[in-house]
Design brief:
- The complex is a heterotetramer of chains A (about 90), B (about 100), C (about 500) and D (about 325).
- Helix content of chain A is about 80%, strand content about 0%.
- Chain A is an all-alpha fold.
- Chain A is flat and about 40 Å long.
- In chain C, helix 7 crosses helix 10 and helix 12 packs antiparallel against helix 13.
- The longest helix of chain C is centred in the last third of the chain and has 33 residues.
- Helix content of chain D is about 70%, strand content about 0%.
- Chain D starts with a helix and ends with a strand.
- Chain D is mostly helical and about 325 residues long.
- The chains are: A mainly alpha (about 90), B mainly alpha (about 100), C mainly alpha (about 500), D mainly alpha (about 325).
Chain lengths: ~90, ~100, ~500, ~325
């Protein structure tokens, strides 16, 4: 059973990593972001699988933290794309 | 009983892994960013959900089971939100061109 | 081994070590919360208290003739952290307290919160960062645990780098970023080395390590990584690229602290590494290599200093050269030879006298730049007559850099020369002599136009009290040349290479 | 070779490949995404090394704070234009840096394989002393009890970093607030995240803080998660970065180390030594200190991300 869990973890990691490498080349930043998103979810899945097979305490909390912050990079990305052209007008006022 | 649960775990996790595979393939093969986004959000939500489902019989306590479900819920939530955000960004950029 | 056990026992007065570190740390916190004028008041009020603490610690070391030790939380190493003050710590603590106090006194004019505002950017940052540097230095001088020292190095980096770009000009930002890159590179290498030593011996305590270290590949690699990292922070040739722009662009009071003290912080850690952690290594070749780098720094830095058109850049390049002398301590004080006492004393004397001389020179240079409106050496004609006290301070500092008697610089170079002759290191002796001549050349380059006849209109006369702050430091640099034998005996207290002799 | 070993080797190769990608990527954003992915993979590696505390930190810092810091910096660099292109280092510098890194990495790899086996460790001593603190998590005991002095001083490093970031402000904006983190009209999805994810995140943060005494977790990881939540709130414009002269902000930034020092000084009266805890009271005091550390970390990280003040007082 444990071997199966580890195998599944490795398989998921491999597929999402393959996606990562293809998409890191672009074409657009949004595609890169999606690849990171997929790796995040896949990473959480493999983390849970590995932890279940090797019994490490506290892994749920690690996965919880990762899940919580999964959207964070996307938020930053979407926010960063056009933030700066708005800032000059806002400087000075509050 | 134990055997049946193991079988259930194996089936769910295998299905989850398949969805991750499908998601990656979609990300690689689909023609444009919006359809790729579609493939991605379906795949990773379902993929992780099935893996979590498969792991549920193996957890030690109720709290841990709840945590697993919370992880899935969080990923669903943030996945939906970031898909929306990325989609908007894509459309805005499309309009610029 | 008996000595090792004794060095681990907490001694009378140990709590003073914790208080010495906490004092400026509390100052940082108070200044940050109260802000505005309080930042300055807190810093200036704590300076004399810190000096008293430093003197008290030095006195305890002198009276007992052995290191003062404290185990934090009463937990002995390897699980706990120890602080140890020996002769080296004692003199460095007092030096740091004096220079920080002088620089703070001098900086009151530059970094006063302007009337009518509750708080201004540069003063707020300056007073906090000054106290941050002070706290970091105290930690580096008395830390006895390699990771605790790493925290000290980080504190020093994060306090020193922003000082460089306090004026806000773009070129200072570039200088500060370059400094940051070198310093972080140094931190990573140091940390890697410390982790390797922990992996090999299960402790980070300097005394415990010294009893366990053996010439394994891991130890050699750790030594190499840590030394490379620390050299980058100390700006020893060829890792010096960051120093001249950083030290020349900072405000004068900051430059005095950066050049006089901050580079000595990481230097003391290199000394701790080679003389306290690794004396068991057969490291003659490595020590000679460090000495060779130091020699190259002396020649290279001096020649570049000779060619600088601006005073602050000249002083900054002279720091490169003077750092070179510090590293002669490695070939001349390692091993168990009769001359190592001279080598050790000479190296430490150079550390102290350069700290005072260079701080005095940077403070004077700041006054000159303010009074003349520029610091182009070629246009100094007549400046010596217009501001005699400032140039006296500059000249006395220069005297010590050249190594002319009577001065701390002379004592340092004389001891180093004696040690290198006794050790048969003729090349180092020649470099010492050549370095002195070159220093004479660049000091002469400053003083000769300044002392020439000419009329010069000052934009504003220098403030008396600030001139005296610079002069006081220069006088200390000279007075070190009269240090009695007891002073040199003090420097030997706790020197592990001696204690480890069979 | 078992499945586990194959997985480990594959994981290691993957980490290496992503690391190389991060360095080699020509485009800033690609490098940032790869770096975030690298952090995630490292979290898995730490789990494989049975170090969940470190994995938790890596997850919270690597994908949270570092991610947003790098993405924002990348976007600003991009909008700053091609000024940086002229200052690109030459090929020889690239090659020498690569050679140096390769040399250091090879030497490290060789030496680590040659380290004594089993490696010397303080784990037995730590286990023995752990009972005295009343804690169940030895990592927390190291951080807040045995090496508390380091932990306290590291917070001073963070505070100096804040001073350093603020000090590059323009003089006229001193006392004002940093620029807003988010765009003027936040999208619906962002508001949804702010309203649903943030409460959950605070819950998770408090949970991780609370279990830290006995299980993986603690003030730093929880603080990083809370910091990320505050940043989401600021990006959704539900609150703005505070003014740098706000007394509350400054108190929050120093409260961790300040409480730590007060407790440390009190130790000499209560337990005979600075930074010692009296018998039987160690755990409550440690939790008390950690609560303020949590506050300081949760305040410091967003302040570092928000950057120097860029707006004046306002009316």
């Amino acid at each position: 059973m444990n071997d199966f869990l580890l195998f599944a973890a490795g398989f998921i990691l491999l597929t999402v990593a393959a996606g990562l490498f293809r998409v890191l080349r672009g074409p657009g930043d949004a595609d890169r972001m999606m690849a990171a998103q997929l790796l995040g979810t896949g990473g959480i899945a493999s983390l849970l699988l590995i932890a279940s097979a090797t019994t490490v305490a506290g892994v749920e909390d690690v996965a919880l933290g990762l899940a919580l912050l999964a959207a964070f990079a996307s938020v930053a990305f979407v926010n960063g794309v056009a933030t700066d052209d708005e800032q000059p007008q806002e400087a000075g006022g509050k | 009983m134990n055997f049946a649960l193991d079988l259930f775990s194996i089936a769910a996790i295998a299905a989850g892994a398949f969805f991750f595979f499908a998601g990656s393939v979609g990300l690689l093969r689909f023609p444009d960013s919006l359809t790729r986004l579609h493939a991605l959000s379906k795949a990773d939500n379902l993929g992780l959900g099935l893996v979590v489902l498969g792991l549920l019989p193996r957890v030690g306590s109720l709290l841990d089971a709840l945590k697993l479900l919370a992880i899935w819920a969080l990923v669903l939530l943030s996945g939906a939100a970031s898909a929306q955000l990325i989609g908007r960004a894509l459309r805005r950029r499309g309009g610029d061109e | 081994m008996i000595e090792t056990a004794a060095a681990l026992e907490p001694t009378f007065g140990g709590p003073l070590l914790v208080l010495a570190i906490l004092l400026p740390v509390v100052g940082v916190l108070l200044s940050f919360v109260l802000g505005g004028r309080f930042a300055e008041r807190v810093a200036l009020a704590l300076a004399p208290v810190g000096l008293v603490l430093a003197l008290a610690i030095a006195f305890l070391v002198w009276r007992s003739g052995a290191p003062v030790v404290y185990n934090i939380a009463g937990l002995a190493p390897p699980l706990g952290i120890a602080l140890r003050a020996d002769g080296l710590s004692g003199v460095m603590l007092v030096t740091a307290a004096l220079i920080v106090a002088a620089a703070g006194f001098y900086a009151r004019a530059t970094f006063a919160t302007p009337e009518g505002s509750t708080e201004a950017r540069a003063p707020f940052a300056f007073w906090i960062l000054l106290q941050g540097i002070w706290a970091a230095l105290i930690l580096l001088f008395i830390g006895a645990d390699l990771f605790n020292l790493y925290v000290g190095l980080e504190l020093l980096t994060f306090a020193a780098v922003p000082l460089v770009c306090l004026s806000g000009k773009p070129e200072t930002l570039v200088a500060a970023l370059r400094y940051l890159m070198f310093a972080l590179f140094g931190s990573v290498f140091y940390l890697l080395g410390a982790a390797l030593l922990y992996g090999a011996y299960g402790t980070l305590d300097i005394v415990l390590l010294s009893g366990r270290v053996a010439p394994l590949p891991a130890v050699w690699l750790a030594a190499g990584l840590m030394t490379a990292g620390l050299l980058a922070k100390t700006a020893l040739f060829p890792l010096h690229l960051w120093l001249p722009p950083a030290h020349a662009n900072a405000p004068a009071a900051a430059s005095a602290v950066l050049s006089g003290l901050v580079v000595k912080g990481s230097f003391v850690v290199v000394v701790r590494l080679w003389f306290y952690v690794l004396p068991a290594l057969p490291g003659d070749a490595a020590q000679v290599f460090l000495g060779a780098l130091g020699s190259a720094a002396i020649l290279f830095g001096s020649v570049l200093a000779l060619r600088q058109p601006r005073l602050k850049l000249l002083i900054a390049y002279s720091t490169l050269a003077q750092i070179g002398y510090l590293f002669l301590i490695f070939p001349l004080a390692s091993g168990q030879h009769p001359w190592t006492i001279d080598g050790w004393n000479g190296g430490l004397m150079q550390t102290l006298s350069h700290a005072f001389a260079k701080a005095a020179m940077f403070l004077s240079a700041g006054l000159i730049a303010e009074s003349l409106g520029h610091d182009r050496i070629a246009e100094f004609t007549g400046a010596g007559r217009a501001m005699p006290v400032t140039f006296l301070a500059l000249g006395l500092g220069g005297l010590s850099l050249m190594g002319l008697p009577p001065s701390g610089g002379f004592a340092a170079k004389w001891l180093l020369l004696r040690a290198s002759v006794a050790a048969g290191h003729w090349v180092f002796a020649l470099v010492l002599l050549a370095g002195g001549l070159l220093a004479a050349g660049y000091v002469f380059r400053i003083l000769s136009p300044a002392l020439a006849d000419g009329s010069l209109v000052l934009k504003s006369p220098p403030q008396r009290s600030r001139e005296h702050a610079a002069l006081a430091l220069a006088v200390v640099a000279v007075a070190l040349g009269f240090a009695p034998q007891e002073f040199f005996d003090f420097l030997q207290i706790g020197r592990m290479a001696v204690a480890a002799q069979p | 070779m078992s499945v586990l070993q194959i997985l480990d080797v594959g994981l290691a190769l993957l980490v290496l490949a992503v690391a190389v990608w991060t360095i080699a990527a020509r485009e800033i954003f690609g490098a940032v995404v790869a770096y975030v992915a690298y952090g995630l993979l490292l979290a898995i590696v730490w789990i494989r090394l049975f170090a969940p505390d470190v994995a938790l930190t890596e997850a919270a810092i690597g994908s949270g704070v570092t991610g947003i810091l790098l993405v924002t910096s990348g976007a600003r660099l991009k909008s700053a234009g091609k000024a940086s292109a002229a200052a690109k280092p030459g090929l020889s510098l690239h090659l020498s840096a690569a050679a140096l890194s390769l040399l250091a990495a090879t030497a490290l790899a060789g030496v680590i394989l040659a380290l004594p086996e089993p490696s010397p460790t303080l784990a037995p001593e730590a286990r023995q002393e752990l009972a005295a603190t009343g804690l169940g998590n030895p990592v927390t005991a190291v951080l807040i009890a045995w090496r508390s002095f380091d932990t306290m001083l590291e917070k001073i490093v963070l505070l100096l970093a804040v001073v350093g970031v603020w000090s590059v402000a323009s003089d006229r904006f001193w006392g004002g607030a940093p620029a807003p983190l988010g765009r003027a009209n936040p999208q619906g999805a962002l508001l949804l995240l702010e309203q649903t994810l943030v409460p959950l995140g605070i819950l998770v943060g408090v949970h991780i803080f609370w279990v830290g005494a006995n299980a993986p977790g603690g003030a730093f990881q929880a603080g990083a998660i809370l910091a990320a939540m505050w940043m989401i709130v600021m990006i959704a414009r539900a609150s703005e970065p505070p003014r740098v002269n706000s007394l509350w902000l400054r108190l929050a930034l120093i409260s961790g180390p300040a409480v730590f020092i007060v407790a440390g000084l009190a130790g000499i009266g209560m337990a005979g030594n600075f930074f010692a805890y009296p018998d039987g009271f160690a755990k409550p005091i440690i939790l008390f200190i950690e609560a303020f550390m949590l506050l300081t970390i949760a305040a410091t990280l967003p302040v570092l991300v928000a950057g120097p003040p860029r707006r004046s007082f306002g009316p």
